[in-house]
Amino acid sequence: MAERKNFVELKVSDGTTMSAYVARPQGTEKHPGIMVFQEAFGVNAYIRDVADRFAREGFTAIAPELFHRTGPGFEGSYTDFTGTQQHTSKLTVENLEVDIRATYD
User: pLDDT digit string (tens) for 61-94?
Assistant: First the structure.
């Protein structure tokens, strides 16, 4: 897979690896952090823009790819909700808990 700008790889406690988009404010000082969660359409341009806007307001923002088990890098179309169901239907509370923990850590 080609390098994706501003993405990091996170190790999840279930043994999987999850990509996450990170947007940081300018400067080197510490900033508060915020998690930005994707819609059914993945960490697409809109979600990355939301993270970028939080960064401009002084937050370090991270948007984890919650479909990393079923479709790493998935970016669905807003006109094809049916195409997202193969990913949304596979989400579980247990997987979301470990994904959120990995994002937080």
Answer: 999 999 999 999 999 999 999 999 999 999 999 9
**Tokens, residue 55:** 């960064």
DSSP letter at 42 equals B
HSE-up of 68 (CA within 13 Å, CB side)?
24
Domain count, the chain: 1
Q: How far apart are CA 22 and CA 19, in angstroms?
A: 10
Q: Tell me which residue has tokens 């690896």.
A: 17
> What residue numbers bound the domain in which 35 lies?
19-104
Distance CA 30, CA 44 (A): 27
Element holding 97 (H helix, E strand): helix 93-104
In a domain, 1, yes or no: no
